[in-house]
């Protein structure tokens, strides 16, 4: 049982990626469990196999404890701690090969408080796990925003302590030239540094961003670049994401024997 | 008119710092306007001079647009765009020397989406402004969390594009030894690197964190360290924060002539 924890800032497309990637894995005859860890989500594009809203529901928390929307979100995520055993049992019962964990909308409330990393550790137990960190394509296409996303990605990497695959979601919104430009920026720390300084960024900040890129390189890899493109809408890049996760989770051992799907 | 934009992750103590720092400035005979920019806050420790909840209230947005707590927070922050002129006029009418801007609970929804930086730019206009970024003391006292906070701080610095003073809030929760330890870690990139590697962090990540520290150094300063300690509860460090902001906002020109308050 492999756990893939999908993390990214609000609106980056976590749930849509869980939906599309789950379908892709099933199409390739792999068993999938989709786990919703967001007590406040109102609508999901997929049918969750395990849903924390059965234990904690942010709307109910809001009414019962007379909290505002802010307080209810924080409190309901903290309340998940009481249900980690139930969640873990429900996941085990699915006997899935891959467990896709969809995390709360705001990564700040999840990754940057103590509850989120604790809940993840408890749910994973001894199983192998990786984080799939997603950047919003709209952010990645601006070098300054790209740099700030890299800091967030490394911050999540450190907070969650899991091997991490980094992907730009909503790749369908990018023109091929934009993808080439982003790829060129992230395929070497020097290129990123030069692109940022060319955009007027302070050299010390550009240097820190370039170092972040190095630190985000996959474990045991000599390649600095670690940013893949994926689209939940078109399915573009799902095979690439799978290969990268597989590398991290099972040292490249492949569980699906189909031909890779076409890239466009 | 100087703007001080208080930013930090959920629960870091932004509102309490606005309260305490506002009182400190007034005690030193400086005119202060306290601006609440959080449409979802339920309770504030201070009486805001300008309050965006008069224009947008997250609870009302939730009911009117039938949104969940998550969606209501995102939508209500986006709606601030329509009221930047009103907010700016209200602020101007206060004729304050210092405008303390208290930002929404979740910095992710504010600093890492486009609305927040836009609203801030519009409200500030031609006035001088700085960000006061706060780290939670509980986070700063663990080297790995400290590193992840440094990435967040630099990310905010890049997103908001303002000179930035970085402070550890809730210093009253730290023992003097813990403060010394944190200070030693942040007073040179080498020390931070060594502390992180000693805690088992991957050297590339530790290097990125050390670079972040350099990049967070105040503009025009040769000192790499830029982390101050402050307590809204005891008042500790408010004079230090003031001096650091003053350095950034007015090149060190001082508007208050009192003796600095004692440090403990």
Give a brief description:
Chains A, B: This is ATP/GTP-binding protein. The first copy, chain A, is an alpha/beta fold and 264 residues long. In chain A, 48% of the residues lie in helices and 14% in strands.
Would you kindly provide a written description of the structure presented here, covering whatever features stand out?
- The structure is a homodimer of 264-residue chains.
- Chain A has 264 residues and is of the alpha/beta class.
- Chain A has one domain (2-250): Rossmann fold.
- Helix content of chain A is 48%, strand content 14%.
- Chain A contains twelve helices and seven strands.
- Chain A has helices at residues 14-27, 58-64, 69-79, 84-94, 107-111, 115-124, 137-140, 143-160, 176-186, 189-198, 203-215, 238-250, and strands at residues 2-7, 32-36, 50-51, 98-102, 128-136, 164-169, 227-229.
- The first copy, chain A, has a seven-stranded parallel β-sheet, sandwiched between helices.
- The first copy, chain A, is globular.
- In chain A, 54% of the residues are buried.
- The model of chain A is unreliable at 257-264 (pLDDT under 50).
- Chains A and B meet through helix 2, helix 3, helix 5, helix 8 and helix 11 of A and helix 2, helix 3, helix 5, helix 8 and helix 11 of B.
């Amino acid at each position: 049982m492999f756990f893939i924890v999908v993390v990214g800032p609000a609106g980056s497309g976590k749930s849509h990626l869980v939906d599309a990637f789950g379908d892709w894995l099933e199409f390739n005859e792999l068993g999938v469990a989709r786990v919703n860890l967001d007590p406040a989500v109102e609508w999901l594009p997929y049918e969750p196999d395990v849903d924390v809203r059965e234990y904690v529901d942010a709307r109910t928390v809001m009414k019962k404890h007379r909290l505002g929307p802010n307080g209810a979100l924080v409190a309901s995520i903290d309340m998940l701690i009481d249900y980690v055993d139930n969640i873990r049992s429900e996941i085990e019962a699915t006997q899935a090969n891959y467990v896709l964990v969809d995390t709360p909308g705001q990564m700040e409330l999840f990754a940057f408080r103590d509850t989120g990393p604790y809940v993840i550790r408890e749910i994973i137990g001894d199983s192998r796990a990786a984080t799939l960190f997603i950047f919003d394509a709209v952010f990645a296409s601006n070098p300054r925003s790209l740099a700030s996303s890299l800091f967030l990605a490394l911050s999540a990497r450190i907070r969650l302590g899991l091997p991490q695959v980094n992907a730009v979601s909503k790749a369908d919104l990018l023109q091929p030239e934009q993808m080439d430009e982003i790829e060129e920026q992230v395929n070497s720390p020097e290129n990123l540094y030069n692109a940022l300084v060319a955009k007027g960024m302070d050299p010390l900040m550009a240097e820190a961003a370039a170092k972040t890129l190095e630190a985000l390189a996959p474990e045991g890899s000599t390649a600095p670049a670690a940013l893949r493109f994926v689209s939940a809408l078109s399915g573009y890049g799902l095979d690439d994401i799978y290969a990268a996760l597989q590398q991290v989770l099972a040292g490249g051992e492949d569980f699906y024997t189909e031909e890779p799907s076409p890239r466009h």
